[in-house]
Design a protein that fits this description.
Helix content: over 70%
Strand content: under 5%
Number of helices: 12
Structural class: mainly alpha
Number of strands: 0
Distance between the termini: 18 Å
Length: 257
């Protein structure tokens, strides 16, 4: 374990960067979670603490879309149900995964999330085509999306990096085309998924509260700054930078095993 001052400096800087990245392009977990691993935190505890630390960012992000959410109330209840259920299932699954097994899975999880982030632009373009084809989704199609959101919830409760991209895909499948409405609903569903997971992690005593508190404050500050820097840096630049970092982290962890 590193010295306390370095320990707190590393997690604060990583969380600040993660908050800024999430507000611009998404993928902040690919920075904050590996940072916790680097300072020697147990991977399962690191994942739980990271979920708690980045949770407040979803609230601040959702507030900006509150008026857009009012336009799609019919989808709120339908999709929050599988979000809560999936988040709870994912959290339980994580707490019942041995440290050894999760440590082996971490490089694959980071690599998968990185590739998902790299493909985000392609997925977004496809969303427009799919959404226009399903402006009036059938009951069967809505049921499929309900199940898909439940699976995304499980992933989010278990690890979570890149789940926003998957949720946007699900919203495109039910005919939503307005990106403001989709982002607002995505952030609300993230609150549901991470919120129920954090409650379970807390009950399981898997959260490092001091570390998580420092990271929560830092990530919130980073999110505020990121929103101000978004136009200057651009989503594409930030996304590419995170992809490079994510690939580097995944390769390093593969060799470390």
């Amino acid at each position: 374990m590193t010295e306390p001052l370095l320990h707190y400096a590393v997690i604060a800087l990583a969380a600040f960067a993660a908050g800024a990245i999430n507000s611009i392009a998404g993928g902040g977990t690919l920075i904050s979670f590996p940072a916790l691993l680097w300072i020697g935190i147990n991977p399962v505890v690191a994942n739980a603490t990271n979920s708690f630390a980045l949770w407040p960012g979803s609230f601040s992000a959702m507030v900006g879309y509150r008026h857009d959410l009012a336009k799609i109330r019919r989808w709120l209840l339908l999709l929050t149900i599988p979000a809560f259920a999936g988040g709870a299932a994912g959290a339980v699954l994580l707490m019942h995964t041995s440290t050894e097994t999760f440590t082996r899975l971490v490089p694959f999880l980071i690599l998968g999330a990185t590739l998902l982030l790299a493909a985000q632009e392609v997925i977004t373009r496809r969303l427009g085509l799919v959404a226009r084809a399903h402006e009036k989704p059938t009951a069967g199609w809505v049921t499929f999306v309900f199940i898909f959101q439940f699976l995304v919830g499980i992933y989010g409760g278990y690890f979570g990096a890149g789940m926003g991209i998957l949720m946007l895909a699900a919203l495109g499948l039910i005919g939503l085309t307005d990106m403001h409405e989709m982002n607002g609903l995505k952030n609300l569903l993230a609150i549901c998924i991470n919120g129920i997971a954090v409650i379970y992690f807390a009950a399981s005593r898997a959260i490092l509260w001091t570390d998580g508190g420092i990271m929560a404050v830092a990530s919130t500050a980073g999110g505020y700054l990121g929103a101000r820097m978004a136009k200057r840096l651009g989503r594409t630049f930030v996304r590419r930078a995170v992809v490079v970092i994510g690939l580097t982290m995944a390769i390093a962890l593969f060799f470390k095993r």
